[in-house]
Amino acid sequence: MFFRGGVDALMIRTQLAMPGMEFLDAQHYNEVFTTHGTIMILFMAMPFVIGLMNIVVPLQIGARDVAFPFLNNLSFWTFFMGAMLFNISFVIGGSPAAGWTNYAPLAEEFSPGYGINFYLLGVQIAGIGTLMTGINFMVTILRMRTKGMTLMKMPMFTWTSLITCLIIVFAFPVLTVALALMTFDRLFGTAFFTLANGGIPMMWANLFWVWGHPEVYIVILPAFGIFSEIISTFSKKKLFGYPAMVAAVVVISLLSFLVWVHHFFTMGSGAAVNSFFSITTMMIAIPTGIKIFNWLFTMYKGRISFTTPMLWSLAFIPNFVIGGVTGVMLAMAAADYQYHNTYFLVSHFHYVLIAGTVFSCFAGLIYWYPKMVGYRLNEKIGKWFFWVFVIGFNVCFFPQYFLGLDGMPRRISTYVEGDGWGTLNLISSIGAFLMGAAFLILCWNIVYSYKHSKRETTGDPWDARTLEWATSSAVPPKYNFAKLPEWNDLDDFWEKKTTRRNV
Fold first, then answer.
1. Whether residue 105 has a cis bond before it, omega within 30° of 0
2. CB proximity list for 454: less than 8 A, separation 6 or greater
């Protein structure tokens, strides 16, 4: 899915590289940017972080497996079937072409064919699988922690996974209802979102973003947990301000349900409504800023090892801050009338989701890779991958801020030379292809390391601090711990290592 979403992105950037390009016609361009957004958010970022949760969370809490292994298996195959249903529209009647937000009425009477139907059914089924996963991991974390591990002694990644699952449980039923209502509109002639028969098109936007903005934090909060683990490990220090970090994650999860209207300030809700949601949106910067400073203070006077996972964590902080600062700009309702629906918003969104989620996916993959397969990825190739991707990312998306300020609308499939956007678009496209080349370097690293890396026998290749590193490097096939450990403190494994006591 990551490969297809990436290819879609390269097709978009090829079409926009120069004025008047005819690489894609308007219809195919709409299909490509729709599938790119949907795949990257729903079918790449979310399953990636949930996959890491499957591997790491039971190990971190000292459990032999998740609470409901059958439900875990069922949720995966349900999600997989939803993803395949979405993708099969590519060969049966054309892909959906109404954007990943699938706004009505464009997605209803103005979108004949099967593409939107496959979007609705595929996302619906995948969402049900995700909901089952959320329930499973909530029970696992709340009921299966090892002896002595209270909530405030859990690793940060486990905390963020728990809060993520809580968001899933409350947010995904809203998406399920919204998709069902639009399915009835398209297949059975109801009129929930059609103006012609008394429906309310903006109700879809409200329902979608009541789910959609918490969805952003479903893929961002686990990233915060991943970076917390990595920064603490490679700074050789206890995570600074652990209680404040936990509180910040909880506050963000609550605020994520109170900001959805900022996605359509231009709808005309009125000054009072826009002001309320503008304030709640800006408030998210407070707990987010707390985490940024906690990570910085964790590194302060630490013995930092510049391994590949740590490099991704260090790159995350400034790039994510850029996305956060521009997010505060977009939170101002009056200013949003200028920025909205331009490439300024596109750039902001990618600085948040790529710098946050994708960087964390790469960092977490490299960090826990020896735990999964029993050997480390090559560090030298990994650093090449890091530098090419991060440079390409900034070359691609930073110019888009200026394209947005210069008035370039998002979703357009072409432009003319007189618009003056050609140079920045070409630079942006070059950056996108650098990111694509970096992905090939990652694939090469996986193959090279499989052939040449030495077997990791210590179980703790990074000299880490959390419980998953107390067992063998390649997770046993049946269960994680032959004897369940005891846990006495947040960094109990580290303290037992340094005092040479048994875990």
1. yes
2. 375
List of residues 6+ apart from 332 with CB closer than 8 A: 278, 282
DSSP 251-281: HHHHHTTS-GGGGGGGG---HHHHHHHHHHH
Report d(CA 503, CA 487) in Å as an integer: 8
3-state secondary structure of 147: strand
Gyration radius (Cα) of the chain, Å: 23
Q: Is 98 helix (H, G, I), strand (E, B) or coil?
A: coil
pLDDT category at 475 given cuts 50, 70, 90 is low
pLDDT digits (tens, 9 = 90+) for 328-354: 999 998 899 889 899 999 999 999 999
CB of 393 within 8 A of CB of 321?
no
CA distances from 214 to 131, 254, 260, 357, 480 (A): 14, 9, 9, 14, 32
Residue 485: is its pLDDT beyond 90? no
Check which CATH number belongs to the domain holding 289 and give it. 1.20.210.10
pLDDT digits (tens, 9 = 90+) for 120-131: 999 999 999 999
Task: State the residue range of the domain holding 166.
Answer: 1-499
Cα(495)–Cα(310) distance, rounded to whole angstroms?
A: 22
Q: How many helices (H) and strands (E) does the chain have?
A: 17, 0
Beta bridge partners of 409: 342
Q: 278 is written with which tokens?
A: 């503008």
- The Cα–Cα gap between 215 and 131 comes to 12
- Contact yes or no for 102/182 (Cβ under 8 A): yes
CB distance 84 to 75 below 8 Å: no
Question: Measured in Å, how far apart are the chain's first and last C-alpha atoms?
Answer: 39
The count of domains in the chain is 1
Question: Phi-psi bin for 483: left (phi > 0), alpha (psi -120 to 50), beta?
Answer: beta
Nearest to 230 by CA among 292, 308, 151: 308
Give SS3 for 141.
helix
